[in-house]
Design goal:
mainly alpha, two-stranded antiparallel ribbon, two-stranded antiparallel sheet, 25 helices, 67% helix, 4% strand
Length: 687
């Protein structure tokens, strides 16, 4: 039953994509013919149906024995194998469930013709869903790589929907370039593994002997997955790629498609086994640095979509730190450390996927209705967007790691796993875990500042300008509100159901680490521990119950003790500034809220500040007054000091290579001969 459900879901998605390409219409056609609305919406309804089928297949894969499906030569090269085991089922469940919520949001989004840009958007989205599913279910190298490249194409299509705009065209090419680099690293790693095993079946790589080629393949494979999830130095495509995608599809890129990179890490830990110690050290340190870099740059951004995109970089780093703990356990043959690391990382994947999907989906409706993504213009949007604002606030609290959300549970497990460094023998691994722990702790503090700014000013603040016309406010629409509600409830509900979530994850991780070891995280049916007994405990289920009761009890007592004055609104003059000559609104701005961080971490951010005098004039150009403004900018260090010099070097090399274009056929044949001899020499050396 599992295979038919999976294949049926893929067929439904293929039919929806064909419908969009054949009869889908742009905004002009939709206005002229209202019946086109059905054509725009139907592919996303097909996405919901297909995602429900795939989700059911994922649940069955977790709860039933593994099976391999041989599709013959479907892709034209060798055998096409699909492997449905508990690990594949775990990620299919997550990605397909998210696809249901995102597709519901897209149904409401697509109903408005002005938000849809012709044919291809739905087809690209369905291609993304199909590619993610096939990657997770792939049982051989060719099928995996074919789906991986298809996902890169889907990213390029969705990010480049508005390629007529220069920033979007640049974002599409950057995304495509990083995707191709990721695929190239995976291809090289897979070729090394296939040459050692003599087979392209992934299962055949589980019995390879350790050695230099094994370690090199391990590093290449992890580098390929790192590029997809956005680890340093590959994170540059996330801040430009995610915001360029249309509407809630940003949620599909960040909360859904990025999970295939983490799936690949989990899968190849189970296949390749023990990694070299140096690789575990690198993963831990890079993960910690990525988390800190991502959240620091998220905190100082002024555009909502870029804040969320940089937050994705932070979450990728946190997840990778947990994976680094698991690698440390595998490198030292410590099964419990593998279990606690993978459990922490898997909970982080779950928290990030649900919350980030909610933030991007709700943020898309908010920015579209207000017509801007500038944080200083988006003030008090929770008053006009009750559904989207609530989902956004709950997702923000989850990513800030605050109780009683699943984000708090996942960060608790992550910090607890890093505290097990005293159980590790090699000094370099202990130092790496300690450094990663310090970076994660600092990241958690900055994350609280980042999301307090979003919730306090953007959602709960007072409006800085006229709100949008109520007649144009969609607030998610009918189907979209259902998707947003599902995501918001999941952020808290998964924390309350954490013991059952861990049981499900334990079954899903069975191909990598024994379920009985992971279930050591359950001290009792309601109390959790970091796999190791008598270390520390937590009961998120009781937190979900006790915290609301405590809030109501304290609030009730405050109202009664103050005889109603507790709810009285007191209006006093706002404190403006201690510096003369500064004028402006009597309130904190999003820029000012994060300005402290610009000063404290000025060296990391490369902050540049200038103070200028601005003259205020009337509409007729008559001078009225002047005021002082401070403008501050930050510099992205990886892009500035790595990619831009590399780009200049490549362009210089390309200009130099033009001299080889003599136009003579004999010269070109000589070039080919030299290249062939070089390849043969390399192959002979490897043999």
């Amino acid at each position: 039953m599992t295979a038919p459900l999976l294949l049926a879901g893929l067929c439904v998605w293929a039919a929806g994509a064909a419908l969009d390409l054949v009869v889908g219409a742009g905004s002009t056609d939709a206005v002229a013919a209202p019946r086109r609305t059905a054509f725009r919406v139907t592919p996303y309804v097909a996405a919901i149906v297909g995602a429900a089928l795939v989700c059911a297949a994922g649940v069955l894969s977790v709860t039933r024995p593994a099976r391999t499906i041989d599709l013959g030569s479907t892709l034209g090269v060798g055998e096409t194998l699909l492997r449905l085991d508990p690990l594949a089922g775990l990620f299919l469940t997550l990605t397909a469930a998210l696809a249901v919520a995102i597709s519901a949001c897209m149904v409401s989004w697509a109903r408005l013709a002005r938000r849809v840009s012709g044919r291809g958007t739905a087809a690209g989205y369905l291609l993304l869903l199909g590619s993610v599913t096939v990657i997770i279910a792939a049982g051989d190298a060719f099928t995996f790589l074919f789906a991986w490249e298809s996902l890169t194409v889907a990213f390029y299509i969705l990010v480049g929907i508005h390629r007529d705009r220069r920033p979007h065209a640049r974002a599409a090419w950057v995304t495509f370039g990083v995707g191709k680099a990721s695929g190239a690293a995976l291809l090289l790693g897979f070729l090394l593994l296939a040459s050692q095993s003599g087979s392209y079946a992934l299962a055949a790589w589980a019995h390879l002997a350790p050695g230099d080629l094994h370690d090199a393949a391990y590093a290449l494979v992890l580098a390929g997955f790192a590029a997809k999830v956005g680890l340093v130095p590959f994170q540059v495509w996330l801040p430009v790629g995610y915001p360029a995608a249309p509407g809630p599809i940003r949620a599909a890129l960040a909360g859904l498609a990025a999970n295939v990179g983490f799936y690949g890490m989990w899968r190849f830990l189970g296949l390749l086994g023990r990694p070299p110690v140096w690789l575990a050290v690198v993963v831990l340190v890079v993960g910690g640095l990525t988390a800190l870099l991502g959240i620091v740059f998220a905190c100082v951004q002024s555009q909502l979509d870029r804040v969320i995109a940089y937050s994705s970089v932070e979450n990728a780093g946190l997840i990778t730190v947990g994976y680094g703990v698991a690698l440390t356990g595998a490198a030292t043959s410590h099964a419990q450390l593998v279990a606690v690391g993978l459990l922490a990382a898997s909970l982080q994947v779950l928290a990030h996927a649900v919350a980030k999907t909610g933030l991007f989906a709700s943020g898309a409706f908010i920015t579209a209705d207000w017509g801007t993504g500038n944080l200083d213009d988006l003030r008090g949007v929770g008053h006009t967007h009750r559904w989207a604002g609530t989902c956004f606030a709950v997702g923000s609290l989850t990513l800030a790691g605050l109780p009683p959300t699943i984000g708090f549970v996942s960060e608790w497990f992550l910090l607890e796993s890093l505290m097990q460094e005293f159980r590790v023998g090699p000094l370099e691994l202990r130092l790496a875990m300690a450094a990663a722990g310090a970076l994660v702790a600092l990241t958690a503090g900055v994350a609280a500042l980042t999301f307090a700014r979003l919730v306090g000013l953007t959602i709960l603040g007072r409006s800085a300008g006229p709100p949008p016309d109520p007649a144009t406010v969609t607030d998610g629409g009918g189907a979209g509100r259902g998707g947003l509600a599902l995501l918001a409830v999941s952020c808290v509900g998964l924390a309350g159901a954490a013991p059952w979530v861990i049981r499900y994850i334990a079954r899903g991780l069975a191909p990598v680490v024994g379920p009985s070891i992971v279930l050591g995280a359950l001290k009792s049916p309601w109390v959790l521990q970091p796999v190791y007994a008598n270390f520390s405990i937590l009961s998120p289920s009781w937190l979900v119950v006790v915290m609301p009761i405590g809030f109501l009890a304290v609030g009730t007592f405050g109202v009664l003790a103050s005889r109603g004055r507790f709810l009285r609104i007191r209006r006093v003059p706002a404190w403006r500034s201690a510096t003369s000559g500064v004028s402006g609104a009597d309130r904190y701005s999003s820029f000012g809220y994060a300005n402290v961080l610009r000063h404290v971490l000025g060296n990391v951010l490369g902050a540049r500040r200038e103070t200028i005098t601005v003259e205020d004039t009337t509409d007729a150009g008559v001078f009225e007054a002047s005021h002082v403004e401070t403008r501050s900018t930050v510099v992205e260090p990886v892009e500035t000091y790595l990619y831009r010099p590399a780009r200049r070097g490549l362009l210089a090399a390309a200009n130099a290579a033009k001299r080889l274009q003599s136009g003579r056929l004999d010269a070109y044949v000589a070039y080919m001969l030299v290249a062939l001899l070089a390849v043969l020499a390399v192959v002979a050396a490897l043999r």
